[in-house]
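Notebook, p. 212. Picked up where the previous page left off. The plan for this session was modest: take the two constructs that came back from the sequencing core last week, fold each one, and keep the raw output in the notebook itself so nobody has to go hunting through shared drives later. Recording the first one now, exactly as returned: residue sequence, then the structure token string.
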Amino acid sequence: MLAATTAVGLYPRILPGSHWDSDADLDLRNRGSLTTMPDFERLAHEIRDFTSRVHDGVRRDAVARLAVFAFARIPLLIALGAHLDDKVPTLVFQRRRTDVLNAWTWPNDQRQLVMFGVSRVRAGLPGQPVTLIVNLSGTIHNHDLPAEATIHHHIYVITPVPPARPGPNLISSPADLASFEETMRGFLAALEANHGNLDSINVFAAVSVSAAVTVGRVLMPQVSPMLKIYDRDNNGAFFLALQVRR
């Protein structure tokens, strides 16, 4: 963490007298299996309690900037992003698929900026629910989805614009992550324009950890629809894991 933050010119304040005497750490490991919605809701409650400390630090001007290092199941990462305070500058880090000590450090060799596109792959019946597939780190196909998220639904897909392709190393810079964030915000804005005030949408996400946090962060209080986030069970089938609203 120290290597990753100092590489971008940030120096964590972990001295006595700061908001925390050490790094702010939320450990959700060893809490049993995550195979049902109540399993995820239990840990999401801990995330809300944890982020309330961040909000308190922001209100007291003890927290001026956030650096986020998050590694967990996708529904929990989206919940974390939704509950983080958006009143201070926040830099979300991405863990690369490597065993080197600086795996959380953004690479210096910036490739061409990754752009993202939104396409509607199925037009549902008027007034029917919306399903969103986000294919960044991998690919989720329509036939993978459960019936309750496909029957008569409008189905949208967010993918990288060629020549970029979905893969675990797609997001390789803060600029790539910002590009994805802009696409997500544009999708939510277009969603309201095309489908009205939706209470919720279904979300199936094959994304990296930083992108998962970003999916939650783009939600706007009292405006954005609730995200009904699906995850795979031990047999590879999707089930509704968590419902997230800002």
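Okay, moving on. Second construct, recorded in the same format:
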Amino acid sequence: MAVPSPSPVYSSSQGEVLPPPGEASPSQGFELVEPATSKRRGFVFSDAPATYLLVGINCAVFVWMVLRGVSFQSPSPEDLLRFGANNTSLVLHGEWYRLLTATFVHVGWIHLATNMWCLWNLGLLGEPLIGPFGLAAVYLLTGIAGNLLSMAVDVLSRTDSIGAGASGAVFGIAGILIVLLSNRRLPIPWDELRRLRRSVIQFAILNLLIGGASNFFDVIRIDNSAHVGGFLSGLALGFPLVPRMTAGRERYFARQKITFAMTALLLSLFGYWIANLSQS
């Protein structure tokens, strides 16, 4: 999957973004930093701690699965379920934790490598805009949203699929980036913002088309409903944050907490609706 390469962006010395225009100071101001993949800087954990941590957790879970006898290439459905993959029937029978754990389980090394490449690049681009807490929250919330939409499709179509992978969360990060990169008040040249935003949009469209086309072939099965759910929830998360991006760190992160809390509540209500729908 093609993803936009990280580009130099403005961030605070603490990895948190965006004071009001004209209020920057040496202690809380913003400097132009190179992406964490820069050869000059090398690997610096503090540049994007949430991105590195999420990639590390995904890789660690996969290694754990392989060490416990799961196929490196093609895990069985039983193995995927044993390690926390999403399954509508099991979730509706009380195993709601699968909505979260499934975002860290992958169907073979190619699936893992593809998702981690996308997460790495989108995370390095997005973390300076939303901070480490914000990126982790977006990953978890949009990943769960994607799995919930996949469940809803299963219930409505009376199917019972098994889903796993970080791709719903990756699409969620892409969705919120499309919205946040539309903010002309960011201390980044508008031409650069448009270029980055266009790259993310192309990534989302291309991979949604690939996911949709997979339904007509037996070579690989992609759960596009999880992609759509993650992407739409990412877009929705971005809109409340844009007005506070240049209002100072305290206001911006306060808005983040409210937005994420309300999203968690709405996802809980959506899950409750799905549970009731399955009984009708």
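Notes on construct two before I forget. The chain is about 60% helix and 5% strand.
Flagging for discussion at group meeting.
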